[in-house]
Amino acid sequence: MGVADTFRESWATRTGFILAAVGSAVGLGNVWRFPFVVGEAGGAAFLVIYLLFIVLIGLAAILVEFVIGRHTDLNPVGALREFGGSSWRYVGGIFVFTGIVLLSFYAVASGWAIRYTLASLTGAYMDDPGAYFGSISTGWETVGFQLVFMIFVVGIVAFGIRRGIELAVKVMVPAIIALIIGLIIYAVTLPDAGEGFAFYLDPDLSVILSEWHRILPDAAGQAFFTLSLGMGVMITYASYLGEDRNLAEDGGVIIGLDTAIAVAVGLFVFPVLAAAGAQYEEPGAGAVFVSLSQAFGDIQFGAVLGFVFFFVLTIAALSSAISLLEVVVAYLIDEWGLDRKVASIAVGSVIFLVGIPTALDLDVLALYDALAANVLLLLGGIIMVVLVGWLQSEKALAELEKGIDDIGPWGNVWLWTVRGPVLLVLLIAFVLAIIGFVEEVQGFIWG
Ligand code: PHE
C-alpha cells in the first residue's frame, strides 16, 4: 500500500473523466503526427489500415489499462504491484521512465506550436517557411518556449484532479472541437479542396498491397500513440474513477472522439495543402510546420487560419502533456507520500532538464521520439497485455464486468482479442520499432 492511501482524489463527473482522457489522447499525435504519417505512408490507404487498428486493438487495449487502474486505485507503479505481485512494481517503473522521456521532448515540440501561434500574428514564417522552422526549432530560445510550456503543465497538474486537470480539460477539449469544425468549414470552400480530399479519402488498393510492410507498423504505432496507450496514462486516469462506470462505454466514447478529431484534422490539412499546391509527403518533424505555414502564406486569410490552427495545436498538446506529468506525479504522491504541489514542481523541473538536449539538436529529439513513442510505448503495451490477458485474466474480467449490466459473451471476446490479435500486432510492431531505433542510433553516431 502506498503511503498516502487515506485520501485519494477522484473525478467530479463522468464528463470530466471522458474529457480528460480525450484531452490526453488528442494532442500533437493527432494534429501534427497524424497528417504527416498519413502523407508519408500513402494517404487514404494508410487511413484505412489505421482505422482498422483503432477498432481492432484500440478499444481492447484501452480497456486493459482501465481495468488495472480502476481495480487498484493507484498510480502505474503501485497498480502493477497490486495487480501482478510485488516484483511487477519494477515493470511499472518503466512507465514512469517513459512518461519522463516522452514529456521531455513533447514539451519542445509544443514550444514550437506556441512559437508558431505567436508568429501567425506577424506572418513571420510566411516568407521562407523552411528557413523559419530551421531558425526556431533548436537553440536557447527554443529552450525558453519549452520552459514556458512546462510552466503551464506544472501549473495545471499542481492544482489536482478536480480543480486542475478536470477544470482545464472542460475548457480546452470543447474549444479544440469547435475550432477544428470552424477550420474545416473554411477548408471546404478552398479552390482545389477536392484534390486534397481525394488524396486523403480515396484509398488506392495497390498502395496497400505494395506498401503494407511500412503501413502496418506505422499504423499500429500511431494507433497506440494517439490513444495515449502503453505508459499508464489510462491506468492513472481510471484510478480516479468509481466502480459504477461502464468502462467499455466510456472507452468507446473516448476512442470515437479521438479518432473523429484525428480524421477531422486531415480534412483541414489536405485541402489547405492542395489549395497551395504543396507537397503531401514532406517527411520529418518539420513537415506540418513547414508545409502548412507555406500554405498559410499562399491562401486568403492564411494568417488568421494559421493562428487558429497553431493555437489548437498548442492547447491539444497541453491537454496531453498534463496527463504525462500526472503519471509521474501520481506515483510520487501514492508511493512516496509527497505533496502534490511539491511533486509537480520537482518532476516538472527534472523533465525540463532532461528535455533540454532535444531543444538544442533535432537528431536528439528524433532519438528520444523513436525510443519513447515507439519502443517504450509498445513494450509497455506488451507488458500490460500479458499481465491482463494471460496472467490475471479472471481478476481483469471481473473488474470489467463491474458497471456493465449484462456483459454476455463480450467479456470473453475482449479477453481473447487481447490475448491473440492485440498481443501479436504489438509484438510485430515492437520488433520493427527496435530495428528502427537501432537505425536511428546508428545514424546519430555515424552521422
Ligand atoms: N496521445 C498523445 C497525442 O496524440 C500523446 C501521448 C502518448 C500522450 C502517450 C500521453 C501518453 O499527442
What does this structure look like?
The structure is a single chain. With 447 residues, the chain is mainly α. It has a domain at 14-103 and 157-291 and 362-446. 81% of the residues lie in helices and 0% in strands. It is built from 18 helices and no strands. The chain has helices at residues 14-25, 28-40, 44-72, 76-84, 88-122, 129-136, 140-158, 160-188, 193-201, 205-226, 233-238, 247-275, 287-298, 302-336, 340-360, 362-391, 393-401, 410-446. The longest helix has 37 residues, at 410-446. It is globular and about 60 Å long. The mean pLDDT is 90. The structure holds phenylalanine. Phenylalanine binds at residues 24-25, 27-30, 102, 225-226, 228, 231, 233, 320, 323-324.
Cα-based radius of gyration, to the nearest Å: 21 Å
Q: Tell me the number of strands.
A: 0
Task: Spell the H/E element sequence.
Answer: HHHHHHHHHHHHHHHHHH
Biggest sheet details: none
- CA-based shape: globular
Find the structural class using helix and strand composition.
mainly alpha
